[in-house]
Amino acid sequence: MALEFTKFFPAAVLLIAIIASLASAQYNLPSVPALFILGDGTVDAGTNTYVNSTYQASVSPYGETFFGHAAGRFTNGRTLADFLAQSLGLPLVPPFVQPLGDHRHGANFASAGSGRLDSTGASRGVVSFKKQLQQLSSVMAVFKWRGKSNAETMLSESVFVISTGADDIANYIAQPSMKIPEQQFVQSLIATYKSGIEVNVKFLEVSFLKPFGALQTLYNHGARKIVVVELGPVGCFPQSKLAASRSSQGFRRFDCLEAANTLAKDVNTGLDDLAKTLSSQLTGIQLIVLKPYDLLMSTIRVPRASGFVNSVDACCGAGPFNAAESCADSYTQRTSEYQPFLCPNPATYMFFDAAHFSEAAYLMMFKNFWHGDQSIATPFNLKDLFAGNAVPFPPLPPRFT
Strand pairing partners for 290? Predict the structure, then answer.
């Protein structure tokens, strides 16, 4: 009998979730009206497809697992932003730059390859983080023009997500002749979140005199539910492993580029401190910091514990670590010495391309962000953030899937 109960326990949990969802509807809990996304390829919904960027995910096999075709996302299916939208019962939020895009339920401004610094990805024609904030400001202005009081209510109940920074570190590591001191670099990234702080640094020949304060900007527009995703172990990405292996003959396959990981941890620490300060200063704000570093590092070290068979190589690409050529180029240009590679089952790989995770890895992260303790979400998780809202499709905890 015990075996029978164990066998059907996941189904019972699913049934309870459905009943809870119906109960929420019965008591008319408010829904989340909109979702606004800023950042890089972890949350990009196709921005680069519509701008003059050389960094593209507009060809197969990108998107094939979920969409059946390339959908502008730098993975084989859905991103963190997509899983959040679906959980909240919202449509997948379209890119802001998509012609005739329906932005009644939000907009996605994220651009793969961009970072917190304007110089990051500039040569590839991506939309900078600063430009994304400007675009968001224009959307906010339209909402308020249609009705200020209604807009203020809608924006205060909406969710704003920021996920960026990995490309800044990759760019910094790749430019040894143009480095500023590491701590100055870290502070320049944190400064982009602050308000009213002047930083006079020069990075890659670009001066940053007055970094815009992203969190303060969102708050001033009426945002009260803000989710910031910290950095993962950037030095363990396939592109970082490739760079390390080329620069050091003693680099081993399962090593990570520790210089990049150290920078990521330093940035995360600075962001933690800033979030605590702003949460105490800004009245009514619910500022959630999601912390994937330890989860991803443990999964990279023991991938099979989370259902993965490969946490070293990209599923799609070419050459060492399948990172010597981009996934897109390996299938469209085919001019290099390397043969294109595509893994038979992307769900078994942590990384889909050299710099981005597979849909399965994003789903693993998202479930932990939703249900996890303070080691992965502070001051509380996504489940608690949306406790007062009707959430029709909450994800099951990782242990039940």
Answer: 229, 377
Neighbouring CB atoms inside 10 A of 69's CB total 12
**Helix, strand, coil: what percent of the chain each, to 5?**
45, 10, 45
Give the whole-angstrom CA distance, residue 322 versus residue 273: 37
CB atoms within 10 A of CB 196: 7
- Dump pLDDT digits (tens) for 44-65: 999 999 998 999 999 999 999 9
Count of H helices and E strands in the chain? 13, 12
75 close to 124: Cβ distance less than 8 angstroms: no
**Rounded Cα gap, residues 298 and 282, in angstroms:** 34
Q: Exposure string (b/e) for 348-370, b if CB count within 10 Å is 16 or more?
A: bbbbbbbbbbbbbbbbbbbbbbb
Residues near 340 by Cβ (< 8 Å), separated by ≥ 6? 317, 318, 325, 330, 331, 334
Which own/partner contact pairs does 59-62 have at CB distance under 8 Å and 24+ positions apart?
59/328, 59/331, 59/332, 60/331, 61/316, 61/327, 61/331, 61/342, 62/316, 62/327, 62/328, 62/352
Those residues whose C-beta lies under 8 Å from the C-beta of residue 220, and which sit 6 or more positions away, are none
In DSSP terms, which residues pair with 349 in a beta bridge?
310
User: Six-digit token pair at 81?
Assistant: 């932003």
Q: What is the pLDDT of residues 302-338, one digit of tens each?
A: 999 999 999 999 999 999 999 998 898 766 665 567 8
- β-strand pairing of 206-208 with 225-229: unpaired
What pLDDT does residue 401 have?
A: 55
| Residues in a beta bridge with 225 | 159, 286
Six token digits for residue 37 = 């996304």
